[in-house]
Amino acid sequence: MKIYRAIEFSQLIWLTTDDATLMWESLSLRDLGNGNVYSNWWLRPENINERRQIVTDICSNSNEPFFRKSLDYNAMQGGRFNPSRSFGVIYSSSNPLVSALEVLFHQYYGALPLYSKMSKDNNRFTSSFNVNIPRKLDSLIIVFEIEIDDEYCNNEICGDKESLITECEKIGFKRYIGDNFTRDFIFGNDYEISRLLGAYIHSFENATFKVPSARLDYEIQDEFDIRNYIIPEKNYNPEKMKLTGRYFEYRSKVNLEKSIQNTHEVEVEVIGSDSSKKLYFNLDSVPNKRTAKHQYVKYEPNSNNPNDRKNHYREVEIQKFKTIKKS
């Protein structure tokens, strides 16, 4: 079975061999010598061969470090289904584009506060450094193809509303399951509930599972059988999980300024060996109750006490990508 793990290019430095690291450093110094102070070398068209050499080097020489370092990183940082400073998880997807969009969302979410601070003092920034604040987040995401044993991820979580109700009842949320219950219950920007669910599943002997992505409409994922794959370190077996050597390159640009529809315009270029194509999305802006009430889902407790329903509800914030056109 094939699955896909996406990594933003700058993070690949931790996976390179000594020779590839030397190439990386040489390219960085060359760009500085040419006066290219404000860009990353891997985004320059003239460096496409060198960046691909580095990715190929990882595929050929860093198979086990690729998975071990991924597990270590996610153990410290945490993710949707594992608390920070806990067990490691390999997050991946059945679809390479969805894997890339997951990483792109985190790139955007981390960059937005920094952009907001700089844009408030745009004139001073420009006069001090003689450069305009960039309006778009420009990133390169590499998606690695992985061959895993078919025994992984046979269990499915949140495949439909009814199965999720069963799982949420097991971990103690029965009082919040009412007529308006949806799969969004575990997919808000706040990871609290999904991390509890992940920790509960981690108690199983086989704790791997598949689950929809939080970043796309469920109907699309159900129709095309798109799922994310969650593999904790306790079930990692280097003999049953290997890089195939194939990978995908996604050059992504996110407009950090909101459109009049209160969304961010997203352009994703799929770069092939001889050609490329572009995909276009709208990404929901950070939820705002004044302008985007539809991005909030409220779950009230099953209680006869009006005060409980008013003050002790759970509110989930949703942000998703919407496809708008292809070319």
What would you say this structure looks like, in words?
The structure is a single chain. This protein has nine helices and eleven strands. It is an alpha+beta fold and 327 residues long. The chain has one domain. The strands form three sheets. The protein has a six-stranded antiparallel β-sheet. Strands 2-5-4 form a three-stranded antiparallel β-sheet. α1 packs antiparallel against α2. The protein is globular.
Which key phrases capture this entry?
327 residues, globular
Write the layout of secondary structure elements.
Elements (H helix, E strand, L loop, with lengths): L1 E7 L9 H16 L14 H14 L1 H15 L11 E5 L2 H25 L1 H8 L6 E13 L12 H10 L21 H10 L7 E3 L6 H7 L3 E5 L8 E15 L7 E9 L4 E9 L11 E4 L6 H6 L2 E4 L3 E6 L1
Antiparallel strand pairs: 1-3, 2-5, 3-6, 4-5, 6-7, 7-8, 8-11, 9-10
